[in-house]
Amino acid sequence: MLSEFVDRNSSIEELEGHRWSAPPGDSTTLVHSVYELRKRAIADLTVEDLRRLIAQDIGLHCYFPLLWTSCAKQHHRKRRAAGMTTTCSRRR
């Protein structure tokens, strides 16, 4: 799976190999929070943290495989709970 290629214990900064300097002093709360989220291990990011990073187009390539895997698992759990199969069938 895609998620096997991402070190969940690494931060976006570590995966990108680029550390940002401190945000400007007059930066908004959003900017300060994004700077801090880049330093947090991907495994520790919450859904809200990820939403914020996605909205700001920050580091998506670092955590997208984990998002994709998580969404796929959730989708399959919902299908099983609804009594649906997990395989796709084609109509011909």
How would you briefly describe this protein structure?
The protein has 92 residues and is mainly alpha-helical. It has helices at 12-16, 29-37, 47-55, 60-81.
Into how many domains do the coordinates divide?
1
Shape: elongated
- What is the number of helices? 4
Q: Which sheet architecture does the biggest sheet show? A: none
Report the portion of residues in β strands.
under 5%
Helix content: 40-55%
What oligomeric state do the depicted chains represent?
A: single chain
Structure commentary:
With 92 residues, this protein is mainly α. The protein has one domain (2-81). It has four helices and no strands. The longest helix has 22 residues, at 60-81. It is elongated, with a radius of gyration of 17 Å. The mean pLDDT is 81.
Show the helix and strand layout.
Layout: H1 12-16, H2 29-37, H3 47-55, H4 60-81
Write out key terms for the chains shown.
single chain, 92 residues, 0% strand, mainly alpha
